Amino acid sequence: MSTPLQASSVATRCVVVIPVKPPAVGKSRLGGLSDEVRRDVAEAFALDTAQAAASTPGVEAVLVVTDDFRLASSMRALGCEVMPDGTSENLNATLVQAVAEVVRRWPGAVPVALCADLPRLRPVELAAVLREVAGHVAAGRSAFVPDRAGSGTTLYAAPAAHFDPRFGAESAARHRSTGAVEAGTSATSVRTDVDDLADLGEALAAGVGPHTSRACEGRVTPLG
């Protein structure tokens, strides 16, 4: 039986699930931006996250869950699969529903939930994290990546039959309380979600994906 310590020897075959709120209502904490710019920036975050995930070795497919038809079309253009969000008022229920679709369409793949606000995401770092979490899942364990602040979660993976995400307030502690193993602690781009203008300023300084760069150019003056 594989163990987490042997994660590098486990064949990584993952389906990354990215839930995305309609950009018109997403990223409400990006105060100071007009509604139009905030919408464009929220959409850009999701597109850069999905594009990086789709480019990551070991990712068989990216499944985006959204009710926004325009965003769905853009995601399909990137090569992602898209499904509607049947339980949009409950993120964790949304993810459980999506994982049922993963089991149906990609049997045997490791289901991985990934937040949509990671415009700095680097495929090489995500690939390393996926190898690590695949080792835990092969051993029957769930795993999560805490955000940079340490209280939230940016990624969660588990065997499909035991997929039990706990996103929400203090999600890192909530995942830890279920026995989920902490992973990816050195993967900066996987841990750096963007919630407010200060976060965005740091992300822009460090380098973001092309969609976010275009959406912010000449339109955003972040706090930093």
UniProtKB/TrEMBL annotation:
According to the UniProt record, what class of enzyme is this?
transferase
- Coiled-coil residues are none
EC number(s)?
2.7.7.68
Q: Name one GO molecular function term.
A: GTP binding
* InterPro entries named among the record's database cross-references: CofC, Nucleotide-diphossugar_trans
Answer whether the UniProt record assigns the keyword Signal to this protein. no
- Tagged with keyword Mitochondrion: no
Q: Which keywords belong to this entry? A: GTP-binding, Nucleotide-binding, Nucleotidyltransferase, Transferase
PANTHER family the record matches: 2-PHOSPHO-L-LACTATE GUANYLYLTRANSFERASE (PTHR40392)
**What name is this protein filed under?**
2-phospho-L-lactate guanylyltransferase
Specify the species: Nocardioides eburneiflavus
The organism's lineage is: Bacteria, Bacillati, Actinomycetota, Actinomycetes, Propionibacteriales
Question: Encoded by which gene?
Answer: cofC
